[in-house]
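Researcher: Please predict.
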Amino acid sequence: MEWIKKFFFYLLISNFVFSQNSLESLLSPMNDDDEIVLATFFSTRIINSHSVELYDPGAMDMRISHRFGALNTGFYELFGLDQATIRLGFEYGLTKNMMIGIGRSSYKKNYDSFIKYSIIKQRKKQKIPISIVYFTSLSIQSIKKQQENYPFSGRLSYCNQLLISSKINKNFSLQIMPTYVHKNMVDFTSYFNDIILIGSAIKYNIFRSTSLNFEYFYRITDADFSNQSQDAFYNSFSIGLDIDAGGHVFQLHVTNSLSMYEVGFLTETNRSWFDGGIHFGFNISREFTLK
């Protein structure tokens, strides 16, 4: 899998090393007064994945994410409502270009942390009107393992993404997300330690403070699921509704992903829309100013 690492490394640095002058001329503002485009998305999340939005310096967000069980669990489980998976997270704006965050999920008792850094902000008079944000995260599974003396390093996984978005007009925004995930240890030899995905997302405002969102991740590298004892993993697809209420954003969604952190929903989505493996969920975020 060495070629995968080289491919992703090249993807991240090639434009900056070999085409720096050309890139700067295309993405730099036409003049110093060129305004930054705001509110590409309503929140730092689209549905599961991060958007290019960052919090201002000194702003903290408390985020509660809730995911019910699958619809196909039937009436006995009240179509998933008897089951619940949650994530509690805190995010903080360090500078105008950087934010950090931490979270804890009940799914696999996972702890995660991340850094987001804005490389380019979309401006109204750019020749190529896009924003680019680099995202990196670390996940640590704390769930008990059957194997004794399970190495701590085997609990670690990493995710790296480029978030590339464009606000086309006041109602329509889109984002693409080349993604690389590395797991130090996997459950089966047929599973990959290194996984490459490409994600896409769309936001459309149906009202001034309400948007309809779509999000999809395609697994470019995939495992061999011919062994029936192994879980088959699927591409993550989600549909969401965002309601912006000023100080907080309320997000409703349906998705085939149970996990709410990157490594989980990107590589461990084991349910399909086609067999009723759909989860209803919501996110609530509340922003505070600490300075």
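Model: Residues 2-18 form the longest helix (17 residues).
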